[in-house]
Amino acid sequence: MQRLNLLEETRFEKIPVTVYSSEAEATKVVAERIAKLIKDKQAKGEKAVLGLATGVTPIKVYQELVRLHKEEGLSFNNVVTFNLDEYYPMLPNEPQSYVTFMNENLFNHVDVPKENIHIPDGSIKEEEVAEFCKEYEQKINSFGGLDIQILGIGRTGHIGFNEPGAAPNSGTRMVTLDDLTRKDASRDFGGKENVPKKAITMGVGSIFKAREIILMAWNKKKAPIIKKAVEGEVSSDIPATYLQLSQNVEFIVDEDAASLLTRFDKPWLAQDIEWDDVITKKAVVWLSQKLGKPILKLTDDDYNTHGMDKLITEKGPAYNMNIKIFNELQHTITGWPGGKPNVDDSQRPERANPAKKNVLLFSPHPDDDVISMGGTFIKLADQGHNVHVAYQTSGNAAVWDDDVLRYLEFAEDFSKLVGFDDQKVKNIYKDNVEIFEQKKPNQTDTEFVRKVKFLIRKGEAIAGARFVGLNEDQIHFQDLPFYDRRKFDKSSSYEDDIQQTIELLRKVKPHQVFAAGDFEDPHGTHKVCFDIILEALKRIKETDEWTKDCWLWMYRGAWHEFPIHEIEMAVPLSPQEVYKKRLAIFKHQSQKDLPVFPGDDAREFWVRAEDRTSETAQLYNNLGLAEYEAIEAFVRYKF
């Protein structure tokens, strides 16, 4: 029997969803629930049987459980664990194995008996897999079944490695991994071609037997699949939708992962709401896009038949509402991203004064500046502002080994040309040829190779910034320590990075700071870089007077743009400016054709960038505003 959802605001949701303000808060709740289960079972002299997951999602849950063990005496001596899955083939001591993952994140730090740990064996012969899977199910049953099963969710909607097409009654078995799943794992394996094509996984039916199921999801990257799993129809195309059929499941997510659920994304469709300015603008833009009508052509009937009758009653009629929102959008558009001097700026996104501003553009990688906001970068320089660019990381991870050898060959020939001793370069070249021949997938580069790759990207960044119009003293390479350090040290301390950023901010004293605002992957470089900038600004705000006149603008990368209703400054580009931006991007030769980390998108970065800005311009045009070749968008972050 299906659960009845009697709450108006969640009437689109077919699974109980609990939303927390942050991942940290949510993971603590999950860890405490697991800890309570363990203690309750201990009090009864019983085993606590846990179904465990891997990946980024449960890491903080495990960290909290370890803390509870070390600081509060939580014992795991009565715990039995069964992991969901393992790649196949996979040796248990490989860095990508889930045995390694579980040992590093949980088992090595608590007192769970080794004989009570069960993880699918990726090292057995293929002809032995079927029998192993049968025995795995029997072992779970022998302990009375799983008391609790924690899950993450993949972008395909897989739970465990139950990919699209999985049956709801499936048991533990060998499966073939979806191509998207392998792409998502490619960074851990040094390329998709190194990711195993198969895995051993507990089935959907195995998961359903658990007495309690908790699926966790964090960040906006998971928001689309969470919406489909919670509000969509049950379908084998999205295995997580099968959880709608369970009476024992709960989704625990943070606000970002829940952001596309109807009650948050379009609350006017789910409940009676208070129509503030933010919701009003979002709703009117949505209505215009849904109906394919310019804003100024929307009618009272359009509003009334799409859940917005209260809005028209309170703030209408439609004509007045349309004019208001149209003007708000119109006022975001400016060809003067640094502010237009000597004009009334009350209806403009940027201040008129000072006429010539100090601008500091932070670029997480050495090409984000020109890819993400190259047109605006060029305008700021052309309009006479004192523009500085800071490349926050070396970006060395995104350079092919072949490029290193090519540059070493050049160094050898150059040494000959100018009469230097080229023997040392020859030896270095020979040594690195041998290193690359023996290099394993995802193996960390030597310090020398990392430095050469940094020099390659540094030279490209200088060429791009010079093309824009900057002088050498306006180009800064921070090479923040966290970027290389986190390859060897999982420490979350960024104090030295923050101090270095504070020094640069105080040197430039910017009126405008531009920073990458891509938050879909909070464990990625962009998010870390933004947090470092924000922390630096917050600290010096207390003491430095100039920060009172400093505005922080966020831009986004080549993949996703801010929603139209969130954009606060839209900078239009002419065809000539788009072409000049393209030439600036072309200075980054190591990232052309096929970058090391292309993601899901096969297009080159410059193509993605042009398509994104063209699409933004078209969205503005569809809403009834002026038609431009391209638009770069920005959102102000008030710190």
Automatic annotation (TrEMBL):
The keyword Hydrolase applies. InterPro entries: Glc/Gal-6P_isomerase, GlcN6P_deaminase-like, GlcNAc_PI_deacetylase-related, Glucosamine6P_isomerase, LmbE-like_dom_sf, NagB/RpiA_transferase-like. Its EC number is 3.5.99.6. Keywords: Carbohydrate metabolism, Hydrolase. Pathway: Amino-sugar metabolism; N-acetylneuraminate degradation; D-fructose 6-phosphate from N-acetylneuraminate: step 5/5. SUPFAM superfamilies: LmbE-like, NagB/RpiA/CoA transferase-like. It catalyses: alpha-D-glucosamine 6-phosphate + H2O = beta-D-fructose 6-phosphate + NH4(+). Residues 22-246 form the Glucosamine/galactosamine-6-phosphate isomerase domain. Pfam families: Glucosamine_iso, PIG-L. NCBIfam families: nagB, PRK02122.1. Belongs to the glucosamine/galactosamine-6-phosphate isomerase family. NagB subfamily. This is Glucosamine-6-phosphate deaminase. It comes from Elizabethkingia anophelis NUHP1.
